[in-house]
From TrEMBL:
HAMAP family: PRAI (MF_00135). One of its GO terms (molecular function) is phosphoribosylanthranilate isomerase activity. Pathway: Amino-acid biosynthesis; L-tryptophan biosynthesis; L-tryptophan from chorismate: step 3/5. GO terms for biological process: L-tryptophan biosynthetic process. This is N-(5'-phosphoribosyl)anthranilate isomerase. It comes from Acetobacter vaccinii. The keyword Isomerase applies.
Amino acid sequence: MAHTGAQSVGVKICGLTEAVGFDACVEHGADWVGFVFFQRSPRFVTPEQARQLSARTIGGPARVGLFVRPDAAVIADVLKHVRLDVLQLYTSVDEAEWFSKHFDLPVWLSLPVSRRAELPATRVADRVLIEPKPPADATRPGGNGQQMDWSMMADWQPAFPWMLAGGLTPDNVAAAIARTGAPAVDVSSGVEEAPGIKSPAAIARFIRNAQAAITV
């Protein structure tokens, strides 16, 4: 897949739960860090835990809060504790638009897909995260370590911001970008030593390999 012009690939490290992982994201130049506010996830953090992590540095990566079918009260409570730059939501297109207006924040819409026909044809949020549909017995809609069928994205050239997620690792991220032309990538379990515990070395490798993969 080809893009017009050259650009560095953006990198989001999601599911930060502890200081070592957060600090590695800052040190190695992640573009975004993600906090998961979904209690069934092994990467769940409370609003206060997210506040403490975010306070470790002024500036640095943009902060993304991930919510699964939330209501406004849940998001409002989180925002009382920690400033977020982006809301990443598993919800409907209409609700995503409502949340964006209500909180005056950009919304990224997570879109699990299993076939090409499910890829969005028009802009439905400030950014869409394309990832594989979870297994039937999954307890959460994402973060399951599944890899996308990258071939379904051949020649898919949306005119809106998007991000690739699902089963990415330091070893395959460059190939994923080459196959899909993804302008940004999102990783969680692929840079972990254990669920919720990030590997600073893996974070460094992932960011280095993704940022070196220039899409043209």
